[in-house]
Every structure is written in structure tokens, then in C-alpha cells.
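User: Now give one protein:

AI:
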Amino acid sequence: MKLIRPIIFFDLETTGVNVHQDRIVEIATVKIDVDGSRQTHSRRVNPTIPIPKEASDVHGITDEMVKEEKPFTEIAPQIFSYFEGCDIGGFNVIGYDLPLLKAEFKRAGIDYNTEDVKIADMMQLYHQRVKRNLSAAYRYYCGKSLENAHSAKADIEATAEIFDAQIKEYDDLTDMNAFHELSYLPFANNVDSDGKFVWNDKDEVVLNFGKNKNEPLALIATKNPSFLKWMMNADFSDETKTICRDALNGVFPQKKK
């Protein structure tokens, strides 16, 4: 595959799995430039909140190990500069790593807009075609056992190798546009990145959870506005809350043709 711009694969180790509340404790990247050259970096981060034992048991990073590290707010400008102008990739990056990274950037006062960024999510493509986890994907595509799984550096280096192997394996992966479209295939009907609102087969925006699931947003805004007001004050992303706020003002998302 000929890259039009650099691509950064990244992996996060965190305090938990809530993308809006949890914090980064380690970030690792593999950056592939358009000439094929690669840079690998990893660093630990002080999350400024306690790391639960359950999380430490997974990635092996404890409060003691990061207490002298800088918080994300201090290193955010440097990381943003490194990511700027690059496409991105990772294993489950769409569903987990990217939303959490965006939330961390926002807390640091930085808007990381990925609207024009092409994304290669190896997990999405892998699950569509093989349906396994990272270790099995590495074994399947690269013929190796993944040592030190759940170390951000080991995980993201394996992910970058899987990217190379998938390009060789599948003839339809001719550019990042193809990878981007396949990575987003399971999310094609999402209106917001969290999938709280989706498009139905009539191109209507409908709720995608709870007792009001499949109810059109326009109907909820008219018949049950208190539900949207509740969502605006609950633990949802700013993107989801903006959809609720706009709907209460009579403005609804329009599907791109």
C-alpha cells in the first residue's frame, strides 16, 4: 500500500474501560512515514487518579510506577503535534483507544478532530474475516506468539505487523480509503461515535438503547423531551449530548448521501 500521509498506530493502557471517565497510564505508538520508515515510542503517564487493582492486574502498571510521570495535560500539546497530519490505526482503536484519547485531549483543552483522518482498525477487519483477539490475530497473520501481551509497546508493535500482513493477505486493501471503509463497516449506521443514535432503514435517526430503542429522535423530542434532557445531564459524550440539545431545538442530523 502506498501511503499518502504518515500513519500512527497507537495503543493505550488505562485505569479502566470507561472512555469518558478513565485515564491513560501508558501510550505507545508506531509511526510509519510515506517512505516506509518507522518510529516506535512509548511513555507512561500519571493518570492523576488511582489505578484500580483490576486494571493493574491486566497491564502491570501501578500507582507507584507512574507517580513521577507527567500528567496527560502536560504532554498533550506534544502528542497532538505528533499526531497532526497523520492517519491513525490500532486494534479496536475506533471503539476504545480513539474515544479515550479524544477525551484526554479535551480535558487538556485540545480539540482533536478526526473528520478528515483515515482510520485502520485491525480488529474490525480481523473480526469480519477471522474473528479472534489480538494474540490470535498476531498468530494467524504473522505466525508468531505475542509475548508480553497487554504491554502497550508489545501490543502496538504486533498491531503494526498485523497491518503489514493484512495488506499482503487481501488484494482489496489498496489504500487507506479501503482500510477506513472496512474498519468503519460495523459503525456505518452510527450517528454519534458512541452509537447511542443510529440510522434506521428509512434514514431516520433512532435511539439505540434502553426501553425507547428504535424510537425516532424527532418523536422523542416532541413526545418525551425530558428523556433527552436526562441524557444531556447523564454520562454521555459531548457529541451525543449535542445531538440531544439540537433535537430539542428542532435541529436533526442529516445523513450524508
User: Anything to note?
Assistant: The radius of gyration is 19 Å.
